[in-house]
């Protein structure tokens, strides 16, 4: 199986998406990156990130809407909303647990489709 390119997206690329990137950085099934939708994001989402991604996982629906509206000229990969509110610090244990549970469910569904 080829490694899946996953882009994790939150607003400022400060806590949620970098946590997800850190958790999965060494996972042999995946290549991961993270970015933010806000102009003040540490790593701002770009056309290059989107074209690289096989799958985009956003923390909130507003992130999906923003990507779709700003990059509507691209052929976008599937975008899945994880529904993780901005209530956590970087590497918060509860955040890690939520991300791992969500992503494993997604990966199992993808594997079952292949």
Automatic annotation (TrEMBL):
Pfam families per record: LMWPc (PF01451)
Domain of life: Bacteria
Gene3D superfamilies xrefs: 3.40.50.2300
SMART domains for this protein: LMWPc
SUPFAM superfamilies from the UniProt entry: Phosphotyrosine protein phosphatases I (SSF52788)
Limits of the Phosphotyrosine protein phosphatase I domain: 4-109
Protein name: Phosphotyrosine protein phosphatase I domain-containing protein
Species assigned in the record: Hyella patelloides LEGE 07179
Lineage summary: Bacteria, Bacillati, Cyanobacteriota, Cyanophyceae, Pleurocapsales
């Amino acid at each position: 199986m080829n490694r899946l390119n996953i882009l994790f997206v939150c607003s400022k690329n400060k806590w949620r998406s970098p946590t997800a990137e850190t958790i999965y950085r060494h996972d042999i099934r995946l290549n991961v990156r993270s970015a933010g939708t806000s102009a003040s994001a540490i790593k701002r989402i770009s056309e290059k990130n989107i074209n690289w991604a096989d799958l985009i996982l956003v923390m909130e629906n507003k992130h999906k809407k923003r990507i779709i509206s700003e990059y509507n000229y691209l052929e976008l990969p599937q975008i899945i909303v994880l529904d993780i509110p901005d209530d956590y610090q970087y590497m918060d244990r509860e955040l890690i647990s939520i991300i791992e549970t969500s992503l494993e469910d997604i990966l199992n569904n993808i594997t079952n489709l292949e």
